[in-house]
Amino acid sequence: MLPLPLRLRPGRVRGAPLLRPAALRGAAAGDGPGRGPAVPRAEQAHKVVASYKPSKFDKKILLWTGRFKTEEEIPARIPPEMLDRARNKARVKACYIMIGLSIVACFAVIASAKKAAARHESLTSWNLAKKEKWRKEAALAAESKPK
């Protein structure tokens, strides 16, 4: 009977890293016989087909979200997933900015309403004054209209 693979053996904690013998670790990293030159795992994990050519606006998003420091660092082609993540970050940042501006606008409206209340102004008094003005204009127009 064949032994169970390490990931299926009983007693293993789910999510815990697999422990492999040193001989297997070296072969898996690419430095074993017939494997070619060793490539670090971090570089292997980030190799994604870069198939999207970013526009000027996409480059600005990539810079604003902090993915790249300068526009010269942005490659000619990038993976679509990188741009999706940058757009999502930009969307969240824009939402936070709008929330902040809304809060500032609320405080501005409160301050202006308090000043208007100190001057004894209200929307009701403005509407009454405007309607009175319209009545006077209508009366003048009716008087000046020849019969």
UniProtKB/TrEMBL annotation:
Recorded topology in the membrane: Single-pass membrane protein
Domain of life: Eukaryota
Compartments reported by the entry: Membrane
Transmembrane segments: 94-113
Keywords: Membrane, Transmembrane, Transmembrane helix
GO cellular component: membrane
Protein name from the UniProt record: Family with sequence similarity 162 member B
Source species: Chrysolophus pictus (Golden pheasant)
